[in-house]
């Protein structure tokens, strides 16, 4: 193979290694920020679809591993977008279901792609999507609602269907998707609440479903900075609605206490005998309002809980899940991404005081069924101290791989060079008897030929023995091409025959033999070595800087934690 081709090939391999190292040390940054779905399956929080800051509908698909500790300032998302078969969409809803309750079911959502199916299934075990065949009649696509799973059935109440102009048509029908038998059904509408979307919902301990607040006015508008609705309205939270799954009927409860102002687009989760809501856009009550409320299910009394920690900005069209002892809030509108984290953690293990924190500890088992809720209209990552070994390990492994590649390239070139030199030596000795030109040379007798064959045999044996011992095959120095081109290749006494130790005369060699080609080879090899060394030095420096940044970040976080 010509050396120019070999150099290009090896440089290509080095480039691939450097790209791989860069990919390992560059975390995935999600584009989707709100109107997404968030589904917890097997300690993985799967995020799908939604909008970016420019209101572009996205098809991001990624997850956060919640089986390990992490810090919200340094989130390590795992990107699965390459296997996502869904068109870009927003305001869909998803649950965990299926025969083994380990499959993601996604329903509805708004999209401009008319080919999007009504239901998709994601299998986390095989990391694959499919479109199920569902019996029964249901052609209604809804968005801006929250699905609830109970015993393998997905309950879909309210939300928006769309008219020809894509305006929201508020619904109040109850669709029921059997995720085990893959069939459609419907629930009762007798005494059902008025149509709405962007409402809160959760599965209660008695297996009833609660529906709270929401939005049913297409003219509503809100102020982004304050989240106050300045035009139109939202629905009251002084009444809540309960759907009895077993008896297929509806009832209404009147609430008391510190009732939140009318609002929509908030999240709601169940914590024992309490419903916790966060965020949303709301009607200005004329006094300072908060973003966190609790509804006591024993008496349907609203109250504002005691809270410590750094209180985050309110959000809406986000999602919330119960994971262990935390209410985990993902993304949403209304916060500054450069200041606040994409994930918020509210420690709700102490009912007397909830704590906003940035550290997630999975040690506490999750014994609570989690539900998510959120969806309105308008306008990082593992704990550094725990993640440092992973990051440093990845960097060290990449560094080792780069060094190993460098040595491999070096020895490959040495082998290639020595192989070429071996050919030159054989050619020199093979033509020695014809380079007399008025000079004394090696006789071309039978004895001389035997001596040459013996010399070549020794050379072959030397190479074979070195190779069989897995040693680097390095041919002893042959000649100094500038001054000593007539020396033998083996370390025998000068001018002595290798078999009978009789003096011999060295064969004069044409000093211009292949000199131009050899100079070019040396120049190409030196250029390659310089380029390779420079690339490896630069990559090593980059990796050192990354390690230093991780360690510095960890130390600063530890100092802040100690100060607290």
From TrEMBL:
Q: Which InterPro entries match?
A: Gal_Oxase/kelch_b-propeller, Kelch-typ_b-propeller
Does the record bear Hydrolase in its keywords?
no
- One of this protein's Pfam families, by short name? Kelch_KLHDC2_KLHL20_DRC7
Q: Where is this region: Disordered?
A: 497-517
Keywords tagged on the record: Kelch repeat, Membrane, Repeat, Signal, Transmembrane, Transmembrane helix
Source species, domain of life: Eukaryota
- The name of this protein is Galactose oxidase
Transmembrane intervals: 390-413
* Keyword Transmembrane helix recorded: yes
Q: Which residues form the signal peptide?
A: 1-23
Origin organism lineage: Eukaryota, Fungi, Fungi incertae sedis, Mucoromycota, Glomeromycotina
